[in-house]
Every structure is written in structure tokens, then in C-alpha cells.
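Thread: Modeling a multi-component assembly for a lab meeting

Hi all, long-time lurker, first post. My supervisor asked me to bring a structural picture of a complex we are working on to next week's group meeting, and I have zero experience with this. I have the sequence lines for every component (1022 residues in total). Could someone generate the structure of the whole assembly? Inputs are pasted exactly as I received them:
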Amino acid sequence: MKRFLFIFSIISSLYLSSCNKINEPYTLPIPVKDWYGKKILLEDYTGHKCQNCPAAAASAANIKEQYGEKVIILAVHAGYYALPSPPNFPEDFTTSEGNAWDAYFGISPNGLPKGMVDRKGYPMTRHLDHGEWASKIGTALSEIPEVEISVKNTYNPSDSSITGKINFKFLKTIKKKLKYQVLITEDSIIAPQLNATTIIPNYLHRHMLRASVNGPWGNDLTDGSTFNMIDTEISKSYLYSLKATELVKYKIKDCKTIVFVYDDATKEILQAEEIHIN
Amino acid sequence: MKKTATLILCILIASIAFSQNQENKVKKLPSVIIKDIDGKSINTAELSNNGKPIIISFWALWCKPCQKELSTIAEVYEDWQKETGVKLIAVSIDDSRSSARVKPTANGNNWGYEVLLDVNHDFKRAMNVNQIPHTFVLNGKGEIVWQHTSFAEGSELELIELIRKLNKGEDISGH
Amino acid sequence: MNKIYNYFIFFSILIAFPYISNSQNFMNSGSITGNFQMDAQYYQKDSAIGAPEVPEQLLMNAFANILYTNGKFTTGLRYESYRNPMLGFDNRYKGSGIAYRFATYTADEFEITLGNFYEQFGSGLIFRTYEERNLGYDNAMDGVRVKYNPKQGIMLKAIIGTQRFFWEEGPGIVRGGDAEFALNDLFSSLAENKTKITLGVSAISKFQATEEILYDATKKFDLPENVGAFAGRLNISRGSLSLSTEYAYKSMDPNSLNNYIYRHGEALMLTAAYSKKGLGVIFSAKRIDNMAFKSKRTETGNMLFINYLPALTKQHSYSLSAMYPYASQPNGEMAIQGEIVYTIPKNTILGGKYGTELKINYSRATSIDKKALNDSIAIDEKATKGYTSNFFKFGDQLYFQDFNIEVVKKINTRIKGSLSYVNILYNKSVIEGHPGAPDVTANIVIADITYKLTSQKSIRFEGQHLISKGDLNDNEDPSKGEKKNWVMGMIEYSIAPHWFFSVMDQYNYGNDENDKKIHFYNVGLAYNKNSSRIQLSYGKQREGILCVGGVCRQVPAANGLSITITSSF
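Re: Modeling a multi-component assembly
Sure thing. I ran the full set together rather than chain by chain. Output:
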């Protein structure tokens, strides 16, 4: 009897040891997904001396091309690979906020490129290889959002200041301690980048984090002690003056602000919005 | 909750550990199937030496102090065997990267030991070995009566002294 | 938290079980054993060597194993604590908890394990789960294992489960079986035959649900959910000769390590050895082609490997010769290794009074031959079959080469020593993944002399010198100069069997940059008592790669006081 059982288990394990054969062309079309207004923030931790980072940026570009404004990409230059190394990599694209997040979430010490999708999974799985991004984003996109964000920016060239008005609207009654963060990004910066074995001198760096309006962890939106009823709205505003050093570097037409709301307990981003500075 | 659960668990284990009758506690070799250098499967619980003491030494090719210990003992091993009847079993924890090199090394070095291969550390884990060299002494009844980690020149003298005491029937657990 | 609670319940049941079944004898017949290790380091910032500031100042890794055995029943657990993980360990280990627990029951010819287990089929080419605590590597299975030994000479194993991923489990299910037949035990006609033959076959299959991994903006990869692998092995030995070989095949397994190519994988290992008293000779050869096998397609780090691809190179033990270690390249590698161990007999001119040990070892690893599928598809292009390859041809890229000689000699009853020479060629761009970095050549000479003062006290000197070429200070910037020459000296004083004292200095005196000519000094103290050891050391640790058992870990530079306590009971 025992023998019979064991032989049975061996046979079944061999049966399980089967493999799937896939035929050419080895690719499938991507199905269309339902969407309820949740925008996704994809943080791409990168560096100009990181040989595999252009591949990750290409994955991000594919995702952006597929989902358009539903996905917001933020390239965070942080860690060893982002340090300047003149003469080949003279620029310093790191930011104190990016470094603070990198240290907090422990990303670059384990190797770049790595990303986070809405910072989901804290404190456990949050570092995602770029191959995983599309799948995680695909799932997250069909979630029903809890908060809606609308942002309006006014840029005043005379004193180079950005004035922003944000309106947060609760789409669900929730009791959470929420914070909101406002960031400045710049797109399409041309600078050297290591790619596999070669240095690309005029590589196009996209969606780069440049500065934060309200520090690495933002400001409180709710204190979490009471319920925020559905349909209530909270307005916030901010003022950010570009410093002279920033004005020299930044191309205002490529600068955007990203606003996101996150749950302070889980660090998960509940909603995000991206808009041009002017 | 997490802390409470862990705490209760620890207390539970500790209570079992301490409730045992320490006097009667004998530790024997665990039963693990590993191979000798000729590929023959061996059950470690069945290692024996006709009622004489056994030394079990965990080592690896990458571990210099381990090889020093084994080479040092190899010089006096024949004398030890004649005098006390002791047997040394050298358990290599080299994995499949270098386990094939163990037999040529043991033979090339003229070691007269019985050499076993613990390629995936099953025996090492069952014996609670953390760092090597780690040496165990078993009395004639197959009970583990002494263990030691590390090797320094002269440690082998302590080892043979313990074996002599064992043969005289002395208790060496206090050493 | 729920998980911890579940463990607790699991264990309460396990521990209660024998109580219920055999309450009378339980207390007397069971035994508890275990071990404990704690490593802690107090870090100081040292910008000269690149040691970062550690906000916690003190970091600690610790674990304890507890095993309970009662007759045919064994259960055990490991508690691990990383508060916070030491530098160089993946910080996803941060936390404490029970990371490993199992129960094993042996009944007649069966052995059944529930929970976590480590297992290896053959040499591990298709399946090996193991742990290397000092490297932070652990891919333990969590599931069920059954071993069946129906008669002498046959061993069957079946496994199923998932693999450990830090404090979680990997997404793939791994299952399979192994059968091993020792022909001489199996057939009485062969029992007395001098030729011993062992045969083995194994199969593993991994299931991971399909996921959306983009090929481009409009298409995704068509992924196989089940990936199968098979292996066969044969060991023959006759007297002083032995021959062993293993071949493995893996079905198409597009993953992020092989750039999503739809090609099968193959591995072959072959070893021939001859040995008799005083002489050992071994020759090994290996070919690996597209054998990265993990229980998660997108994992690029060191975790979740299902199989083990052993490197065919010697693992060096001295600090300077271990500066350039090699690890197998899972995407493709051809390697050979030869070694001679010879003891020049006593009372000959070269052998002297005590005989002289001589070890000569050579190894070489290169790429495999890869040809494009056709003119329009690049080699390793994603969503293609990748390439074609001539099985027996060496590739033209050299990954690693090592030639080394070691002479061990006892001069008289007080003095004993060894002298080694090592020549290494190290392809940094492939092994460390620093494209563009030049190959490193290193010549190392090592002298290790022990002088016995009394029967228990001895003093040991270690002198090492390394000359390197091509090892850049900054891998992306040749203008920052090379590391070039190193010298290392150590004095160790030991009082057997308890005490060790050591003073050591490693000095990069040949560095092109003056501010990188740094002394990495270290003083250490260790005390051993039976199976316990406490070790203290203070000093600087250079940045490097630490490899044990096929896994390597980047060890960052550090400065400070470290303590290790280890104990078994």
C-alpha cells in the first residue's frame, strides 16, 4: 500500500514536472484594462554610472507609451551610481530628497536599477526589477482611487516663482494619516550615461527629480484621528521660488510638478498628479 | 502580539529543555545520510569504532586552520591509534564546487582518516556546527561527550589527553 | 504578524503532538540541541576608505537554531534577528522572527519532512537549496519532502514547496523528484565487484503564474508558466580511479537574467580523479549554457536560485589571494580545472625528515561559443531563441584563469610553514559587471610560518605580497589610477586551546593615488571554550568580495569594533 502510494506520488511528480512549450513569435498583445481614475507613480531609481539603467528607462518609456497620463514616471538619481565622476560624468543629479528616500527604503545598496510602484509593499517587498513594473502597474491601475487630486500652477517669470493650488477630494470615507508631497521634475536632460559597455555622451535623461517643495516627507493632509467623509475637499497651496542656480540649469518648459498623497503608516501612495509648471 | 507569541514560544522551549533530567541526558549522533569519498551512502547514526572513542572533525578545503589540524594529527595518528584505538572521521563540508577534490587531497596528503562528504551541510546542521574547524569527541558508547571549535598548535595534545581519560573511564564533560 | 502567530500555532501543535502520543516517555527520551551566533559591529565613519556613516552606529545579525529530537521525530526552528542588518547584507533582512521551522518523522523506509528543508539533487545543477548565513544567502524550501529507501541501494526523494525570499516566499512553486541507484548494493552479483557504480536521475519543475512583462509598448512576452528541468548522473570508481559526470537540461525559461530569450538550457560536468597514498590527481571540465534557474522570473539578485552552478576554481583562503574570486556565469561558461596534490616522501632530498606537501592547481573559465540565429537578429535578442552554440567549442572571451602552487613543509619540531604563489587573470567587466573595466592580472606570493614556542604556545607569521595590473580605483574612470601593489603582514599568537591574539596590516602601498595608499590595520582577540567562541576585533576592513559556497557578497569598507559570539549546545 505504502509502496503503491509512493509510486503514485513519483508518477504524479513526474507529471507535474512538465514544461510549457511556447511557439514563435513569443509575444502577445496587451489586453485593455478597466480604469477608475487612479494614477500610478513609478519611481525609477537610477544613476548615470549604472550600466543597466537605460534598459530600465526603456521599460518605463514603454509603460508610459502604453498608459499615457495614467502613469507618472519619476527618475530618482541616487546612491553610488549617481555620484559625479568627472570627467566622464561631471553632473550631479542627486537630490537630498532622493538620497533620503533611497536610504529609507534601502534601494541602491542592493543594486540599481530598481523601482517602486506607488511605494507598495513597505516594509517588505518594494524593490522591483524593471521587468516587474508593467505587471505591478497593470494591477494597480484597476484599483478604485480613494482620493482625487487636481492641481493648478502659475509661473511668474519676473521672480521665477511657482504658485500652486491643490484640491484634494475624498472619494471614500477613510480614517488614515495622510501626507502630501510636491516635487519639481525636469524632462529631457541631455547628459552622459553609461549603457552596458559604452558611454552615451548625449543620452536623454527623462522625468528627472530636481527638487522637493516640501522636504522628503511632505506635509500633513489629515491627522488620522477622525474620519474624512466621502466628497469632502481640502485645499492646499504652495509657493516655490527657483533659486538662481536652478534657473541657470532648468528649462522651464520641461519642468513639471508632481503631487502625491500617501498613507503615513504604509508609505503607500494613494493618488498622484502631474502638471506642467506653466 | 508578535512579541508575546515569541516569548511564549521561548518559555515553552526553555521549559522543555530544563525539565529534562540533565543527568540522564545523552547526546548521540543524529541520523543523516551522507556519502563517503567513494560515493557510498552512510548513515551518520551508525558511525562506530568497536567500542573505542571517535573524533569527528568538520573541515573544508578552503579552511586553513582545519587542514592544519588534520595535518598535525596525521603525523601522530598512527601512534594515537596504536595507543588508544581512537578513530578520526574527517567530515568535509565542501559543496559540489570542490567536493570532488576532497579525495585526491586527503590521499595526496597521506591522511589515514575516514573522510565523509557533507555537500549540502545536512550533517553540519544536525550537529549544530556554526564555524569550522569544529571537533567532537564520542566515547565508546557513541555518546558525544566533548566538542570544541577552532584549532591552535597544541590543541591536539588536549584532544589525545581527553581520549586517554575516556579510555580510563573518566568523565570529561567538565573540560 | 499573522505569520508569526501561525508559526506559533504550528509549533505548539508540533510540540504537543508527542505529548499526546507518548506522554510518559517524552521528557526522558527527547533531547534538545542547538546553536547560536551573533555578529555585531560598531561603525565609525571613515571617508578615506569609503566607510559610510551608519546612523544606528551599531548593527547586528544574530540567529539561534533549536533542534528537538525524540526517537523518530525531529523538529526544529531558527530564530533570526537583524537589528539592523550589518553593512553588506541586504537590508530587506531587517527585522526579527522565526525564519525556519520544520518537523521530520521517520517511519520504516520513509522520512517525511514538513516545513522548511534544504535539499540537493546530484551536484545541484537543477536543484539545490542551501544557506550560507555569513553571506546572508538562504533559499530554503517551505513545503513537503518525502524520502523513500525501499531497499539497500535505492534512494527516492520527492519535494514540493516555495523558496525563502528574505522574510517572504518566492512566487514560484518548485516540485520534483530524484532517484539514486547504487548498483553494487542493488545487485548481489555486483556486491564484490571492485567497480562501484552509482546512477541517478532527477526532475524539477517550476510553476509561476504568467505576468505582464512588456516586450514593447504594445506587446508583452508570452511566458511559459511551467519550466521543467531534467538531469542524469553517473559515478564510477574502481580502486584509485574515479569518474563522475552529470548532465542537465532545462526547457525554455525566459527571465530577466537571460534577457528573455526562448532557448533551452544545458549543463555538463565531468570529473576524473586518480589518487593513492601520497598522490592525488584530478581533472574537471564543465559547460554551462543558459542555466539561470530561479523561482521568480524577474529576480536579478542572489536570491531564489533553484539550482547551483559550481565554479570550477579553487577557493583561496588567504586575504590577498582571495581578492579576486570567481563565480559561475549562469548564462554561459566553459571551464576546466586540474590539480595535483603530492607528498614528497620522508627521508628524500626534497622531502626532508618529515616529507613535503606540494599542491599545483590550474583553472580556466571562458565564454561559450555563441552565433547569431540569422543576419537580422542580434545574439541574445529578447523574444527569440537567442543564439546557436557549438557544444564543444570554447568562446573567445576569457573570464578567469588561476595558476597556483603551494608547498607545505615542516622544518623541524618547532617550525612549520608554507609558501604559495598565485597567478590570477580576472575579467572584471564580466565578473563584477563593470563594463569597460580592463582585465586584472595579479601575482601573489604568500608565506605562512608557524613557530612553536612551547607545546601550547605558538606564534604564526603571515606575509603576503600582491602585484596587480588593471585594477582601477574607479571602474568608470581610468584617470583615477590603479590599485596596483599590496602588502600584508600578520602576527598571531595562540595559547592552545583557548586564546588567540592577532595584529594585522594590509597596505595598498602601490596605489597610483596618494590618498588611497591606506593601511588597513586590525587587531583581534578570540577566546574559545569548548564549543563557544568569542571574538573581538578592531580596525579597518577593505572593500571586497566575500565568497563562500558559490555565493559572493560585496563587503563594503568599514571601520570599527566588531564582536562575534558563537556557541553550540
